Amino acid sequence: MSDAAAKSILAGLIGSGIQASRSPALHEHEGDAQGLRYLYRLIDLDVLNLDLSELPSLLEAAERMGYTGLNITYPCKQAVIPLLDELSKEAASIGAVNTVVLRDGKRVGHNTDALGFGEGFRRGLPNASRQRVVQMGAGGAGAAVAHALLSQGVEQLTLFEVDPIRAQALADNLSRHFGNGRAVVGTDLETAMARADGLVNTTPIGMTKLPGTPVPPELLRAALWVSEIVYFPLETQLLRDARALGCQTLDGSVMAVFQAVKAFELFSGRQADADRMLKHFASFG
Known about the structure:
Blueprint: E1 8-15, H1 23-33, E2 37-44, H2 45-48, H3 55-64, E3 69-72, E4 86-87, H4 89-94, E5 99-103, E6 106-110, H5 113-124, E7 132-136, H6 140-151, E8 156-160, H7 164-178, E9 183-185, H8 189-195, E10 198-201, E11 225-228, H9 237-245, E12 248-250, H10 253-268, H11 274-282
Parallel strand pairs: 1-2, 1-3, 4-6, 7-8, 7-10, 8-9, 10-11, 11-12
Antiparallel strand pairs: 3-5, 5-6
């Protein structure tokens, strides 16, 4: 993208229950720092009283209004794929999209979640044991996180998901990319947790709109590390339970920032200042 074309950016986030999202502030603050006219809007299905059936209309409307691109979050990361013209290599491998670039009449889907989680994991839990990990959730975010975990050396990932068909589909996809047995569908959470080194929540449970925890507190123990991708609120019930036991924990902030860093670059054609975006995120308190 030319520098002239990059001076005005209109982007947005499509998802459900996203009013607490920090994406608008992150993108607009970085745009201001780089001298861009950068507007980032929330397209909240809950506020608009819409469901997934309206996703095609929302994409069409964004194109007509001149949007540069869209971030995609729960529950749209997989539903959006059939509506796109192209997928990046990462998005195709993961089977989920969280960023759509609208350019030259085409919709190109990308996935920056895996990069975001991977960077957060490297920074926040650099010495975490990686033999056995339990992951809650096998949806769009879960697919990206699973790819990141296996890429960083997790030996066996056990997936728990309310939809067993979706869980098996993700396990099969991971086996094709990383080898048989690296990912399996769990059936006994208590036993899996007793054997695990770490736990990652990729479900929306714990969000402001879906309070609670995906794992009973009695299944946690001090030797376990616990990671969360939810970042509003930054301290979920799961993290509170884990910290009360003395677990090593990782909140969703670094994943949120680094997926935004890459999305900013895709939308603007400019390299984002990751440290500046991290500091800005932290300033929210």
